[in-house]
Amino acid sequence: MSPSPTVVLVHGAFADASGFRGTIQLLEAAGHQVVAVPNPLRSLSGDAESVRRRVAAIEGPVVLVGHSYGGAVITQAADTLENVTALVYLAAFGLDVGESCLSVQAGYPPAMLATEGRPSPYDAPGAPGGPDLYIDRASFHEVFCADSSAEDAAVMAATQRPISAAALGEPASAAAWKRLPSWFLLPDQDNAIPPAAMEFMARRMGATVECVAGGSHTSFIVQPQVTAGLIERALV
Fold it and tell me: Model's pTM, two decimal places?
C-alpha cells in the first residue's frame, strides 16, 4: 500500500502560515500529514527554490498547496520535484512561463489591491531591488479578508508580512501545472486578485474548480472545511 501524500501548505503575500490553522486541524483530524513551510517573499526564483528544497527532503508523495502568491511559488518549485503528485491553488496565481503575478492580471478590471498597496521607504532586505509592499491598514479588511470579522482583520493587518515588489514582477521560469493535476479554490468576491483572472488561470490549467460564493481572498480561513475538502480530493 502506497503512503498517503503529505500536504505542504505555502502561504502568500501579506500573511504567514497561521492562516492555515483551521485547514491544518481538519486535515490532521482526518489522519493526514501536514507541513506549513515559510515563504520568504523576496523573489519568485528564490522563494521557489526555498520551497523546492524543503519538499525534496520529504519522503513519499506530496500535494503542494499555495495561497495567492504562494501559487506562483508552488508552480515553479514543483517543476523538478518527482514526489509532487498534485497542486492545489487557493485564490492563487497559476502562472505560465514568462508571466509574472503582475502581467497575468493585465486586461482585467483591477482589483482593489492595485490601488491599496503601499511601498516601503526602504529597499526590501534580501530582494533583488526595490521596496517592500504592504496593504494600507485602513483598507486591509476590505482588500484582503472582507469575510473575516473586524477583530480578526485588525490582527491580520497588524501582522501582515510584506512582499518585495521584485517578487511580483519576476517572470516565471516553469509551469508545473502542465504535467500535474490541479485543483483551484476560487472566491467570487476577491479584492486582491481579479476573479476573472483566476478563472482564466484555472481554466487554462484544466483545474478542478471549487467556487466560493461571497468569498474573499482569504476565504480559506473563514471556510476551512471547504478548503480541507478540496485538498482531500487532490490526495486521492
Answer: 0.97
Residue 1 lies in a domain: no
Instruction: Name the DSSP letter for residue 110.
Output: P
How many Cβ atoms from other residues are within 10 Å of residue 217's Cβ? Answer: 29
pLDDT tens readout for residues 75-115: 999 999 999 999 999 999 999 999 999 999 999 999 999 99
How many domains are contained in the chain?
1
* Closest by Cα among 100, 111, 159 to 134: 159
What are the φ and ψ backbone dihedral angles of 204, each rounded to 5 degrees?
-60, -40
Q: Which domain holds residue 67?
A: 6-235
Q: Is residue 138 domain-resident?
A: yes
- Contact (CB, 8 A) for 205 and 108: no
Considering only CA atoms, which of 135, 129, 167, 165 is closest in space to residue 50?
A: 167
